[in-house]
Amino acid sequence: MASVRSFRTTLSWPVFVPGLLLIGLILAWATLAPASAEALLGAAQRTVSQQFGWFYILAVAVFLLTLLGIAVSRYGDIKLGPDDATPAFSLPSWLAMLFAAGMGIGLMYFGVGEPLQHYLSPPLAAANPQAAAQQAMNLTFHHWGLHAWAIYGVVGLVLAYFGFRYRLPLTLRAGLYPILGERIHGPWGHAVDVFALVSTVFGIATTLGFGVMQLAAGLQQLAGIDTTSDGFKLGLIAGVMGLAGLSAATGLDKGVRRLSELNLGLALLLLLFVLCAGPTVYLLMTFSDNLGSYLSGMVDLTFRTFSYGSDAQQQWLSGWTLLYWAWWVSWSPFVGLFIARISRGRTLREFIVGVLLVPTLFNFLWMTVFGNSAIWLDMHVAAGALGSAAANVDSLLFRFFDYLPFPLLSGSVAMLLIAVFFVTSADSGAMVLDSIASGGDTASPLWQRLFWALLLGVTAGVLLTAGGLKALQAMTLVSALPFTAIMLLLCYSLWRGLQSDHCHQTQQPAPATQFWSGHHWQQRLRQLVQRPDAATVQQFIDTEVQPALRTVADELSQNGVSAGVQRRDDGSVLLRIDQPGARDFVYRVYCHGQPQPAFLPARADDGVYQYLAQTDFADGREGYDIRYLRRSEIIADVLKQYERYLSLQWQQHGQLLSSAPAHPG
Predict the structure, then answer these.
(1) Is residue 220's pLDDT more than 60?
(2) In terms of CB atoms within 10 Å, which end of the chain has fewer, N or C?
(3) Dihedral over Cα of 515, 519, 525, 526: its sign
């Protein structure tokens, strides 16, 4: 890839320069001529909704079915990385970061507003207020449930799989590797990443702009401060982006992880308060009803297009469901890249279950507690006053707290939570943008992450003050149409990649090459129960493994095959057999230390490692100990693995992974 890599920058210039130019041009258009931009993009948005609404509906269904199919299939056990990879983050930290990145600000902004608006104007006929309330929650669940996270999950899974399993750059282009091959490193790959970069900048900046409007409305509601001036809103953006910059400086493991855990803790605190202060028993009952109604009607909700409905229902579908699907798609490069980066070492099944179920169940609980509370309060306490304020979503959450105990305290906690969500989105967004613009390189200098955080803040501030937020919102939704088509290609790429991976995993050596028949079993038994030290294992590698590999290399050379043996500084030795047009065959043996199993008779109590003569392969398969083999048996094992390697070259399904970059030994 054409990029500049030095101690100063890791930016990929074919992505960074065109992306920055496009961002500048679009930003100038949306700010200098916001009325014309809004009119033109609004018309384009209506055209997309009317002509391609069916496409969005079917595509989202495909995304969900793809993930569910992989989770229950034989592919679910494949890891995102080599077979011996372990997760970089604990399960609670991983789930907290999923929650904070995907839906954070949205839950605060729409948790009260959407259920209340559906309740007041249900798209389907409702016989009574109770039926309207149930319909409102069913539709809210649909928009914030499995389908939304399936969109994020497809992008995240494809990028994590090809990034960690195939060792390709952790950028959007990597997902098209089975289709484009090495062309992902050329103009086609650059174009895909430029598209992702621009879409991510405006998607995050637009959402941050709406978040600032809610923060300003909350401050005005709680403290009586005039927050309508542009200067005040710009000050809010500057303060939040400054905190995001500090978080970015601490890195992913500290900054984003700790903020995400703080997000989840505050959200749970606020959730429990509303649950206890509101109609508790009613909320617990409605959660069960809402969940059952959603699951029983999922098929109908998934494929509903209102093709037999009225014009009003078609407009509702365009203004809500299609708008949500397009919005989630426009955010999927950001969220997908983020959850891919934090998910190395997990199995595909674990990834899918975690991404689909855990955040979805939390969203359902949140929407039930806040949405059903708002509807109940409007019916029994506020006498319609809360519903009359539903159009002003910016301040609706804080008006909702007025009907609960301790409104100032609960509103203040909500303000803090919105601010922390804001910082987390900006911080993780800057990290993802830096990764896209750097060709997937994660070792970028600090100033690059700060640059992207600054760009997000400037973009949100300019759009907010110039009135270009609506135009940019329409643009992100229009741009979601071609990206939805790209996502379908990503699903096809994933299927091809998994086929090739499964072929590699299940390929067995020929029966005739199974050489060990029980001879010298006493030596084998001693090696099983005794604990060799590192020097003993290294001596075995030097005196038995290295000569065996050289014998194989010499014989191959005499038969016209290019092969050689290398000894590395770490004491490992490897046999490399050149294979033009594909990944070379590598058989490496190294001294590997691991904690000694407790059940071994000769186990020491000091926790000292046991040492193995471990094999290592270029395709990322898990190695095994060969220290019990004799020289002739080592040669037989090498030939067994080489025969397996050649048989994969001759199989069509095995060729894709065979041509990918080798895992470093």
Answers:
(1) yes
(2) C
(3) negative
Helix-helix angle 446-466:187-223, to 10 degrees = 60
pLDDT of 223 over the 80 cut: no
CB 212 within 8 A of CB 233: yes
Reading phi first (left if > 0) and then psi (alpha if -120 to 50, else beta), residue 453 is in alpha
CA–CA dist 375, 459 (Å, integer): 36
Single-letter amino acid, residue 124 = L
Structure tokens at 71: 């989770």
Q: b/e for 218-229, b at 16 or more Cβ within 10 A?
A: bbbbbeeeebee
Tell me the C-alpha distance between 446 and 28, whole Å.
28
Token pair for residue 242? 């400054």
Q: Which two tokens stand for residue 63?
A: 């995304």
Helices (H), ranges, 438-519: 446-466, 469-506
Confidence bin at 604 (pLDDT 50/70/90): very low
By residue count, the chain amounts to: 665
- 470-489, pLDDT tens digit by residue? 666 677 677 788 889 999 99
SS (H, E, C) 272-310: HHHHHHCCHHHHHHHHHHHHHHHHHCHHHHHHCCCCCCC
Q: Name the residue with higher pLDDT: 39 or 134.
A: 134
Three-class secondary structure of residue 645 per DSSP: helix
Q: Which residues of 481-491 are buried (b: 16+ CB within 10 A; e: fewer)?
A: bebbebbbebb
User: CA dist 18 to 194, 195, 437, Å?
Assistant: 7, 10, 10
What secondary structure letter does DSSP report for 111? T
What's the pLDDT score for residue 94? 86
Residues 43 and 478: their CA atoms lie apart, in Å, by 10
Distance separating alpha carbons of residues 162 and 657, to the nearest angstrom: 10
* pLDDT tens sequence across 356-405: 998 899 899 999 999 999 999 999 988 889 988 888 888 899 999 999 99
- For CA atoms 274, 275, 276, 278, give the dihedral sign: positive
**Which residue from 376, 400, 380, 403 is spatially nearest to 390, judged by alpha carbons?**
400
Burial class of 521 by CB neighbour count within 10 A (0 to 12, 13 to 18, 19+): exposed
Pair type for strands 573-577 and 585-595: antiparallel
Select from 616, 82, 654, 656 the least CA-distant residue to 347: 82
Q: In degrees, to the nearest 5, what angle opens at C-alpha 138 toward C-alphas 357 and 359?
A: 20
pLDDT tens, 264-287? 788 889 999 999 999 999 999 999
Share the mean pLDDT of the chain. Answer: 85
104 neighbors 263 (Cβ within 8 angstroms): yes
DSSP secondary structure letter of residue 514: -
Cα separations (Å) of 431 from 26, 198, 241, 527? Answer: 22, 15, 13, 48
Residue 33 DSSP one-character state: S
* CB contact set of 484 (below 8 Å; sequence gap of 6+): 55, 56, 59, 326, 329
Q: Cα separation of 644 and 121, whole Å?
A: 64
Distance CA 245, CA 335 (A): 19
